[in-house]
């Protein structure tokens, strides 16, 4: 409809958060926009995929997700493994997507649900609700309204992409998308991915900033914000929630970049590439992966620098020389 505008209003909190996020993105730009740090980009992409799927009850560990992406054999539910493969393929499309084209959104959903849903890449034809676990937060609009509602939303974005800040627009879109719930499955995953598509067109560094990991940590707050917006009739609470999560995750990304700039040598990169996330390794097992025999060389060039940067942590930090000591990649 002409003049359609999603119900929201700018608040002082939103503007303060937009200012804070913009300042932090400037700091990331100073560090070459993550372009010179393929190791961090890859790790953050894996975090994004693992967290977004975990929100939707995928049980695979982050190490297993990495293995699936790397083409290794993983023992787990076939559907969950397919979800990882699909998500990785979908995230690889971010750079080529136009955030204001419904056709591109349908393409991404088709990839996200490939071999999982018959209606992959098509709007739903049945009734759906938004659930947090077994709790129904609200019932989505009936299916015959979905095409029109999605057209209105994308038309509003295209017409206002020069007027509405991308941080606000992406968050408003995220809520409106979840409210419309246009697909029979994969709505949350697609909403979070498209949020990144919108932001990455503003600043390409967002392609490798794992907002999903922050949402997953505060999953209850995510659904509570959605429910509150449904009651309030506008998306303000949800927009503020998402901006706070983005503001928070940027602090972590900036620290990642600083730490890597301070001393991520080729030795450390090689060790981290061979280690899986959240898997405890003994010193001997890491040395075997690296093909090393000298413990002194291992500690001096590989382990100690990674420990100093916080990229690897001890499982028994108060007893560094314990025979049961293990090391975990963070």
From TrEMBL:
GO terms for molecular function: ATP binding. ATP binds at residues 185-192, 222-223. The active site is at 181. It comes from the Bacteria. It comes from Anaerobium acetethylicum. InterPro entries: Fic-like_C, Fido, Fido-like_dom_sf, Fido_containing. This is Fic family protein. Residues 100-244 form the Fido domain. Keywords: ATP-binding, Nucleotide-binding. Pfam families: Fic, Fic-like_C. The keyword ATP-binding applies. The keyword Nucleotide-binding applies. The record marks 56 as: Important for autoinhibition of adenylyltransferase activity.
């Amino acid at each position: 409809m002409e003049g359609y505008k999603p119900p929201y209003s700018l608040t002082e909190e939103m503007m303060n958060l937009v200012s804070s996020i913009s300042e932090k993105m400037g700091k990331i730009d100073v560090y070459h926009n993550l372009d010179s740090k393929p190791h961090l980009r890859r790790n953050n992409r894996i975090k994004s995929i693992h967290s977004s799927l975990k929100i939707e009850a995928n049980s695979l560990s982050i190490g297993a997700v990495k293995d699936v992406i790397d083409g290794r054999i993983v023992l787990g539910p076939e559907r969950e493994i397919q979800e990882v493969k699909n998500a990785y393929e979908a995230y690889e499309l971010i750079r080529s997507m136009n955030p204001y084209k419904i056709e591109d959104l349908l393409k991404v959903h088709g990839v996200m649900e490939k071999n999982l849903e018959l209606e992959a890449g098509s709007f739903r034809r049945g009734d759906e609700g938004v659930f947090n676990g077994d709790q129904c937060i609200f019932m989505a609009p009936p299916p015959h309204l979905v095409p029109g509602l999605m057209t209105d939303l994308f038309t509003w974005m295209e017409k206002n992409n020069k007027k509405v800040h991308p941080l606000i627009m992406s968050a408003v879109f995220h809520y409106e998308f979840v409210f419309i719930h246009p697909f029979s499955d994969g709505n949350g995953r697609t909403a979070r991915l498209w949020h990144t598509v919108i932001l990455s067109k503003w600043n390409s560094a967002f392609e490798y900033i794992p907002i999903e990991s922050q949402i997953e940590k505060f999953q209850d707050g995510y659904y509570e914000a959605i429910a509150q917006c449904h009651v309030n009739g506008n998306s303000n609470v949800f927009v503020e929630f998402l901006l706070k999560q983005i503001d928070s995750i940027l602090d972590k990304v900036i620290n990642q970049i600083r730490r890597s700039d301070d001393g991520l040598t080729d030795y450390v990169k090689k060790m981290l590439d061979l280690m899986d996330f959240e898997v405890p390794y003994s010193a001997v097992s890491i040395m075997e992966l690296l093909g090393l025999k000298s413990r002194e060389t291992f500690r001096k060039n590989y382990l100690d620098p990674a420990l100093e940067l916080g990229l690897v942590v001890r499982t028994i930090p108060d007893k560094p020389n314990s025979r049961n000591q293990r090391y975990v990649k963070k």
